[in-house]
Amino acid sequence: MHAEKGGRKKDLQQAYRGIAQFFSSVPGFACEVGLMAWKHRNKSPLIHAWTYESDVDGSGIQVEMIPRTAWDKEPRLQDINYSWISGDHRETLRHAFDATTSFRPDEHFMIALKIIGKDNVHRASVGMDSFAVKHARGVEIVDALTAATRPKDLADAFAWFESVFPAHDAQEQLKCIRSRSERLYGGGFTPPGSVPVPTRELNNEVAYMMTDSLLIAFNVQLLGLKGAAHLNGKEGVICGPDPANPARWTTRLDDGKLVNVKATNFVHVRRGEYTRKSP
Fold it and tell me: What's the pLDDT tens digit per position in 45-59?
């Protein structure tokens, strides 16, 4: 009997590892959940990510933040949407937030990963993960870059590239930024080791480069278009530079339409949480 129980426990552990491996293999997922947890860390949150067994590439993964005021309720008071949170799950969470010395709210967060099978059986694992400081710092700089044109914010972005990328890759990125400032935005020659004069257009591009490296979506709203004024106010996501015109950026609007616009014709917009890029 003991061996049988041990075998079942081992099978469960393997199943939970498989769940974690699946979610962690999805590009941008780790950054998405880490940023959500960081933003709400004062609420002792449980980050809940789930999808269906048929979702082979992870494109259907949904993510939500469940504050302690919701996950720490007794079953009879529990919201029906959180009925999957078992007593064992609650005890694990309480122990992490209240009892363990290894959990630090400014370094760690709790996450539940769930796969819903064809038989509607929920397989969920709850565990601890760590914040990536570079992710949180990166989006802080992105928000600052797209809100103003202060020299400090562009200098912070340069320092971020140098701290996150290998030295050669970082210098290639910065060389590209200096070149675009000179060729497209009248910034004049910027010597190696220097930071260009910030402009709204250049800041937009640098902010996109940062979110792209984090594999999270860069949501925008179009404005100032003259030849296609009917698109002003439309929202979408930047897909990348237009291969045919280096001064333009391919944008997928919310209705699925693709347009190529200059960096002067979009502004970054936050639509709730930062989310991973679509496949």
Answer: 999 999 999 999 999
Strand partners, 66: 46
Calpha distance 197→195 (Å, rounded): 7
Q: How many residues does the chain have?
A: 279
The residue whose two tokens read 């609007």 is 253
Q: Which residue has the tokens 């609420």?
A: 43
Whole-number Å distance between alpha carbons of 163 and 203: 19
CA-CA distance, 264 to 260, in Å (whole number)? 12
CA-CA-CA-CA torsion sign (209, 134, 125, 39): negative
Q: d(Cα 19, Cα 73) in Å, to the nearest integer?
A: 26
Contact call for residues 65 and 112 (beta carbons, < 8 A): no
Task: Output phi, psi for 229, to 5 deg.
Answer: -60, -25
184-198 burial, b if ≥16 CB within 10 A, otherwise e? bbebeebeeeebbeb
For the stretch 136-171, pLDDT in tens is: 999 999 999 999 999 999 999 999 999 999 999 999
